[in-house]
Amino acid sequence: MTIIAHPKTKKQEAAIEAVLKALNISFQKDDESPYNPEFVAEIKARMKSAEKGNVTRIKDPKNIWESIL
To answer: For the segment 1-54, what is each residue's pLDDT rounded down to a tens digit?
Structure first.
């Protein structure tokens, strides 16, 4: 069985760990994102660019290449 908790503060995290240890339940912490940091940075940069209006609009989804050229 797997239980996934999402504590919002360090205090909550510490409390959950204390309870698990007191009950002798094994657990693992995964503080790292499963995504490549370079990939995440690139996505964030693209999102900022899109927010500034740097986007390509597709007028006709049936004929993508003609609608963007």
So the answer is: 888 898 999 999 999 999 999 999 999 888 777 788 899 999 999 999 999 999
Residue 44 and residue 35: Cα distance in Å, rounded? 13
Q: In the chain, where are the structural domains located?
A: 10-68
What's the maximum distance between 2 C-alpha atoms anywhere in the chain?
A: 65
Q: Look up residue 5 and give its two tokens.
A: 């908790």
**Distance set, CA 41 to CA 22, 24, 53, 59 (Å):** 39, 39, 19, 29
User: What are phi and psi for residue 26, nearest 5 degrees?
Assistant: -70, 145
Structure letter (DSSP) for residue 1: -
Predicted pLDDT of residue 69: 63
